[in-house]
Amino acid sequence: MTKIGIIGGSGYVGGELLRLLLLHPHVEVTMVTSRQNVDEYIFNIHPNLRGLTQLRFVQQDISAIQNNCDIIFTATPHGSSVNLIPELLAAGLKVIDMSADFRLKNPIDYETYYGWKHANPEILNEAVYGLPELHRAEIKNAKLVACPGCMATSTILGLAPIIKAGLVDTNKITVDLKVGSSGGGSKPTSASHHPERFSGVRPYQVTKHRHIAEIEQELSAISEQPVKIGFTPHAVNMVRGILSTIYTYYKQFLTNKDLWKTLRSMYENEPFIRLVKYQKGSYQLPDPKINTGTNFCDIGFEIDEHTNRLIMFSAIDNMCKGASGQGVQCLNLLIGIDETTGLKSTGFHPM
User: Which residues belong to the active site?
Assistant: First the structure.
């Protein structure tokens, strides 16, 4: 059994990690830290875990973590793990970071998009971007995995095949993204307060959103030339889920057959990618509702000949494939087992 610790386990990402890891057949959760909930039973904070664990939250202590864990998940707020992770690595631990602190390769991007100077830029190139569909081989041998943002995951997976194939203009890409309230974390703000959010569709951070940096970083690497995107998220009235509607302009005329061939060439053997474009039923294109609680990313498309647009659709559960499920997928790769272990579940219907 691989011994797992979670630093910052009282938030939504920590709770989702626990939901998946407590039932995982090859790991044992040995420690979960929380500064605000020390000695509290985990199931009092995450009530869905009642009957699954008697663990209590503990104080963060590097020596105790080193003695009791093989791999650590850091599920702390952005900016909180930047100085912690070097200590964990020095202690000989492997780390899967759920925050943004090591996702970006260019330290200047942290000043531009996050507003702070990176304290340990020398580690950025050691971190592997934790998107298995793009970096599976590197993840297997990583000491530090930096898991992507939820919105970045949905967008990158929707765009990667057509960028790789060179089908679209890489300077004319617009992402219109809808995201559920859990993406804002477990601590409410005036904007996430239920009466303010309910029944609304609210654009926010309509330019210069922080996820742009990692999206452009990964897509530019695929394209081998700079990729620019326009990116605007909207807060919508659901708890879980992301739908990315991505507008691109094709370089030359495309058919449905061309797109199917392109998508299958990259994703045909991917265990968590489903291609969704049907002629019948209520769910002919991706809908995040169907992915709730799963690690799937559903990808579909439409060709708009009137405006020479290729419209991509990408749907995920932001808490699972957009965060903790992806972290567990990376964990499976790190310990050398089938990457779907502990993640094989269907969504709910109806819900």
Answer: 150
